[in-house]
Amino acid sequence: MNWYWILGWIPSTLAILGNGFVIYLICTRRRLKTVPNRFVLALAVADFGVGACFFPAHFMCNFFLSNCNSSIAGDIAVLMIYSSTANLCAMTIDRYVAIVRPLTYTALMTRRCADYLIAFSWFVPLAAYFAPAFCTSLHGCSINLKVTVIIWTSMFEFIPCVLLLLVTVKIISTARKHCRQLVKLDSQLRYNKPDHKGQRTVSSARVIGTVVAIFIACYALEVYSSLCYFTKLCEATEDLNRAVFFLVVTNSAANPIAYALFKRDIKKELRNTFRLKKKSIYSSKV
């Protein structure tokens, strides 16, 4: 048993526990049931699926089940991974509209529009990847694997990495511009009203910037591995593939940490939750 089978449980467990707790918070706290958090919830569900489906199924198939159809298990796991990528793109679109077009955000991003965008983010991986892959695994149809893998890799790896990077740079630059304007306005208000408290800037840009940075960092090796597979300029070894699998799951495990550290409403609910638990523990001891 090498390092992969030992360390692989760490990000998988963190992805399950972290995203499960995020799902629990958003579903049970009325204050968190907002349009932006619908995208966070969808991404958390996909990341939870990555943690629950990918490594555990891979581990069981290799060590405990002699007649395991690893192809179907792999299809489900990759569906969760691609759904995570698609839902991250949807969340980035939401934050782009909120920060770059703040005056029209409420009119554009209604609950119905958010639900449509989330449904589309689940439908695309399901139709473009899972349906043909699952059919092939059951030997019900055949596909040109080389061409199809190029399409899948372009749709869910290369293009998202490039677009997410460009959009996030625009989001961060716009957010910084807004912050400078707010600082200037606050200084003017304090001059006329000394007891004025400065306006708090939104945490959206920091959250999306962190999540996208984690995504690109974790998927950089996957892009390199795909280039090795397509171009033969390098060798896609088994150790390289396992490192890619480990980083992909790590990406899903890291997202809840980004929410807890930088997303203000979730951070506040976490504090309230642990504060209540401490009070209940203290009162039970007394």
TrEMBL record:
Compartment(s) where it occurs, according to its Swiss-Prot or TrEMBL record: Cell membrane
Membrane topology (UniProt): Multi-pass membrane protein
TM spans (from-to): 6-27, 39-60, 72-93, 113-131, 151-172, 207-224, 244-262
Domain G-protein coupled receptors family 1 profile: 18-259
Pfam families given in the database record: 7tm_1
Keyword Transmembrane helix appears in the UniProt entry: yes
Entry keyword set: Cell membrane, G-protein coupled receptor, Membrane, Receptor, Transducer, Transmembrane, Transmembrane helix
Principal location listed in the UniProt entry: membrane
Recorded GO MF terms: G protein-coupled receptor activity
Gene3D superfamilies associated with the record: Rhodopsin 7-helix transmembrane proteins (1.20.1070.10)
CC per GO annotation: plasma membrane
Coiled-coil segments: none
Family that this chain belongs to: Belongs to the G-protein coupled receptor 1 family.
Protein name: G-protein coupled receptors family 1 profile domain-containing protein
Species of origin: Desmophyllum pertusum
